[in-house]
Amino acid sequence: MRIAVDGMGGDKGPGTVVMGAVDAVNQDSDLTVLLVGNQDILKAELAKLKYNPKQIEVHHAEEEVTMEDHPAVVVRQKRNSSLHVANRLVKSGDAIAVFTAGNTGAAMAVSLLILGRIPGIVRPALLIDFPSNSPSGYTSIIDVGANADCKPKMLAQFAVMGDMYARYIRGVENPRVGLLSLGEEDSKGNELIHETRELMKSLKLNYIGNVEGQDVVNGKAELVVCDGFTGNVILKFGTGLARLIVDAIKHELVNNGWMTKVAAGFMLPVIRKFFRRLDYQETGAAPLLGVAGISTIGHGKSNSKAIKNAIFQAKKFGISHINQHIEEALKQNGVAEL
Description:
Strand order of the largest sheet: 3-2-1-4-11-10-5-6-9-7-8
Order of helices and strands: EHEHEHHEHEEHEHEHEHHEEHH
Radius of gyration: 21 Å
């Protein structure tokens, strides 16, 4: 299991990425991490840590992608960047997956350019897992930012890809799939929703019809399908709300006297479990589904724990052979682009 990691991506710098990679290989003897970036910087960071040198390789890349770089500029003018080199390692078969905590738009553009699309896919899509009351504890949302403007066939393909993710990554046997709309009734929604709904009914999925925003968290579905503009708004609002809840709980525990603090001591295991469900560091990365290779993208503020878990997640994708399942499912559902 060889995972290519963009060593220069993320707000916290190469040191954090290297630490996460070392933590990953120290916990998994079957894992090899290919760190991509400025070799002098990466080797200097590695020299500070203890690990099996056979499990980490450094691949030099002359250029670095910043968070401010426009994706089109990265694609055309930074072809020797760590993002390009890491994706080429996957394309050549030297790695089974690529992970970056860097520029999301650039990561999507470079992966699409180098890895291409799964046969039949119109556009790749980003998927995230959102804490919910579903039996698995999460509801997946697709798309959350890769495609602001969508056509019905694209949303149908998102549903098929998300269904494969729920089955082979999350282990949900028969995931319920909902189409995000203004209401549950078939009369609700815009033209895109109406056209997509009819197409969704023909798919060989456990399609439950329209779902509303509240259904993302109430456990009504394991997968919610929407365009990238709407999905990104949900993602940003949800993470902001989660941060508010966490901060509010901490404030109440600290500022309401000693009895509250004593009570908090008894509740601490429950509180920690709740916080873990809200913490992006636990999964570490979102998959870009639809590219002909495994491409995963992490939060720009990822710490070493998030990097480590993202590497484990990338390995899980490689083991699952999810792209083969997606290609087969597209054909079975008749939504592969010819």
